Amino acid sequence: MRKLAAGNWKMNGTSADIPQLEALAAAHANAGVDVVMCGPATLLHRMAVTGVSIGGEDCHPETSGAHTGDISAEMIKDAGATHVITGHSERRTDHGEDNALIAAKTTAGWAAGLHVILCIGESEAQYRAGDTLEVLRAQMDASIPDGATAQTTTIAYEPIWAIGTGLTPTPEEIAAVHANLRAYLMDRFETGSQMRLLYGGSVKASNADEIFALANVDGALVGGASLKAADFSPIITALENA
Ligand code: 13P
Q1: Which class in CATH covers the domain with range 4-241?
Q2: For residue 112, what pLDDT is reported?
Q3: Which residues form ligand 1's pocket by a CB distance below 6 Å?
Q4: Ligand 1 centre and the CA of 65: distance in Å?
């Protein structure tokens, strides 16, 4: 399978940041891995013409209608995106999104022809209680629709306590979780052995080599270190060399 270096700008980025993507496009024109930058809806059109593959950060489950302020998967696709994130923990927390809604958004993303990067992850309390695997399996049971295939879906494991904190699980912990996720995907989906599994949470140039060396880590979903080409570029290179 082709690995994926995905960025997530979250609620960051204006037109002044487009040169960061242009620099990435120039430096990684023939990357040996897939590179996708997910950005705010306001910037997708401009991001799309840089040559970097683009994703939305969220979508509404319906195609159109009276939903002020919301954005459909069709709109994201129309803006030039090829990917969309669903189920990010910040959506789950800030907007009370539950697994059923995330499943509906994922189906909407597929219907629009977008590849969905579906996020799962445990809280710090769940991690400390030793409930990580149980939490992740419950999230996958209820948020990954039955029709998922390796072609349409990537799963991103993002421990909530590792996001933006500079903390990460140990390599052994990441490897153990990813092995468990792989077993789940293979059990449930015909193409589960080929479905990409990303790690996310405080990935940066200094820890990328160690994380990408782990079995069943097929790339990363990167927040803070995706904002500047100088920070994201070495992460792409580390994935290419893994
Ligand atoms: P950070 O890389 O800033 O920890 O964010 C991870 C993340 O939430 C990506 O979706």
Answers
A1: alpha beta
A2: 98
A3: 8, 88, 158, 163-164, 200-203, 221-225
A4: 31
